[in-house]
Amino acid sequence: MIKKAVLPVAGFGTRFLPASKSIPKEMLPIIDKPLVQYAVEEAINIGVDEIIFIISPEKYSIRKHFEKNEIFESRLKNSDKTEMISKLNPEIFSEIKFHYIDQEEQNGLGHAILQAEKVIGDNSFAVLLPDDLFFSEESCLDQLLNSYKKTNSSVIAVNKVNKEDIHKYGVIKPGDIKNNLIQIEDIVEKPSYENAPSDIAVCGRYIFKPSIFKFLHLTNFDNSGEIQLTDAIKVLLKEEKVHARIYEGEKYDCGSKKGFVHATIALALRDESISKDIKEIIKEII
Ligand code: G1P
Which fold has domain 4-255? Predict the structure, then answer.
């Protein structure tokens, strides 16, 4: 039912300099897989078959990563490492249409999503911010999809955060709450501790009805010169119901060094081929 997903990946990634000087931060690996691939797989697993990257030209390695690498594949075929072919050129990617749209200027998340308007057309679609990495039996996007089917409204993934961290996120003012589904009354981008309407923050997964584009067009630049997605949702709320789904599972903010390392450790401890050794190493260090 949701066939298209937008992944904004044009940001500079200054927090990861110098690594992000020539390697897009989305290509930094958590163990052996680039961050962006986790988000792409999450989208494909709910039935998405068109991935729309909002990208900048210097991040061509992302494009290369999702293209089939025939040369490397034939090398693997001639060696005794044929089992690695499925890692190199995963079968699931061959069915997917990847679009790459250059975001000429860095004008914020809302502006990035606007670039996908033509490709999305009159369809509901998902947005995944690859910096946010989720681990749960039912993926974050799957949880959103279920809520989307129930409500037939745009839905946003949220989770509770420490009030000290609230200034880093979009924050909702909750209305009616039924189980894990909240009707959103209002939403603010990165409020101060004092002004935050709750401790319920937006995490990086959304499902939108195409009506969001109308409101993105109406949204002005904020004080920092960006078009905020949150500001468009704020106005959308005046015309349509929008729901928040409380995400159940683990979440890592891999846009920060702390979250990136945390995710790396959490994944290493899950990886059967290294988990025992890693546990020992951690014990030794502590
Ligand atoms: C963006 C959104 C914010 C959201 C966050 C989730 O902020 O603008 O509303 O809470 O992603 O990761 P950014 O992290 O890009 O500053």
Answer: Spore Coat Polysaccharide Biosynthesis Protein SpsA; Chain A (3.90.550)
